[in-house]
Write a structure and sequence with these properties.
With 454 residues, the protein is of the alpha/beta class. The protein contains 15 helices and 20 strands. The two termini are 14 Å apart.
Length: 454
Amino acid sequence: METGPFRSGDNHPRCLAVVSGASRRVCGVKRRLTLVSTGDELLSGRTLNSHPAIVTQAVAPLGLQLSRVLMVGDDVRDIRDAVSAAVETSAAVLVGGGLGPTPDDVTRQGVAEALGRSLHMDPELADRIRRRAAERGQPVPAILDRQAMVIEGARILDNRVGSAPGQLVEAEGTAVFLLPGPPAEFEAVFRDHVLPWLREHLASEEALVERVLMTCGIPEVEIARSLEEAGLPVEGCSLSFRPAAGAVEVCFRAPGTLKERLEECTRKAGEVLGSCVYAEERIGLAEAVGRLLVREKRTVAVAESCTGGLLGALITEVSGSSRYFVGGIIAYSNEVKERHLGVPAEVLQKYGAVSAECAEAMAAGVRSRLSADVGVAITGIAGPTGGTAEKPVGLVFVAVADADGVLSVRRFFRGGRNTIRRWSAQTALDMVRRRLLGLEPEFRDRPLGSVGRG
């Protein structure tokens, strides 16, 4: 990827461009896609731009790629110039954000100026927007009518999630789509209207096929090294990674004509990564563990110290988790560890709250007191304060208890407080997964966490 300021005729510095070199080489202008995401909150970093991920993941199976991602502020000129430049080199331009009813929602005006079109109020659309807001029990202020301003020649794209409709304007052989900014609304309008259009007009005859391996407990750099040593990916297949705290998505892609080669490549990668692979589809570790618990007809309870309820939150984010999740105890203080989990005072005095002995007692205690089949516990130092030379920030102990006994692991995670907590929770989930499958814990004798990215 190349990044840098987007330059237009007026040379505005409030635009950021991300250009894929691979896309320039592979996609001709007739199949090139450009995304323009608008909003001062994106440029300031207050909000992360999720639009590229939504688009990229959806268009890859069509054999398409984004060639450019532009981020511009809430400024009519910036939007106008970004769209003008994109139209010259793209078959389709997606403009996300700025379709709301407030004064800083100026995308419609910017796009209209870029295309040399007029804007007009659509009374029927305004009535529809008001009726939908009323049906949802929302206020219906007159300001909502701004969302009914339509670009000359545009087709309205219904928004089933929110109030701001999208628009499609075709000009000089390029389709310009206007989509609402909130991720849920952007994705709904994109999948309902943009994706079908792309599939009909731009999809490659050799649409890509993909296979994914979801892994946990192993850093991205280690995965990349292991696969490279195994000669992967093979010719004709591409490989990409999407890392998150405690998990990495490994994705192989190939043209449909090379599907058998792709399957073999994925199979070999699965053998190389072994028990670190927890799924062969895009699901989180918590969902994978939940499926195992249902299959094995087991229940789980959690005892958390440094994660402060994060593990329980991850488990209960999965629909249907009430079938296997009994509950949890957040035992931040030693007093709660003793009173509610039954951790012996002598364990805390001799080994401390951050120790294998304490983690094991917590796991056994929560399993017993909440009558669960499996108890899992986390205790550690998430930082940035509280660390010592003997027990530094990032030191975490995770334990799991079931009818066969109690097992604990010592881990050291690098990164900020949230990263350490996330890695700790993911490690606990992986401990449960391995226990249910009869696998030994993955041994690590060096720090995990913020590694592998410069």
